[in-house]
UniProtKB/TrEMBL annotation:
GO terms for molecular function: RNA-directed DNA polymerase activity. Keywords: Nucleotidyltransferase, RNA-directed DNA polymerase, Signal, Transferase. Residues 1-29 form the signal peptide. The keyword Transferase applies. This is Reverse transcriptase family protein.
Amino acid sequence: MITYEMLKHLGPTTNSLLLILICKCFASADIPDLWYQAMVFPIPKPHEWRCQLKNTRPITLLEVIQKSFVKLLYTRLSATLATHNVLTGGNFAGLPGGTCRDLIITLESLIHDANYNSSPLWILS
């Protein structure tokens, strides 16, 4: 329940301790269990939903320190992963120049087909 406002007012000692905590998480590969969790909310765009994902804007909510950890990890890895084409297929959307568009279109097609044919649809992640 730490807010950005609280972090802005940290003193140099507390800032250093927070950095030490994050660095130790990296060094030991021991990440708190709660940092593996996030809440994803589909925010509707300013027009009718019509059961289409393209009519939403997903937002992921993370705890502030968790978000700082993820941002540091992303910053360190993204350039290397993009340069060396480590991720392929639909696994590159979060990298610079990547997009989720094709995955969203595929998912919408599956939903449309299931609705059109009145068949069940199971989506697992």
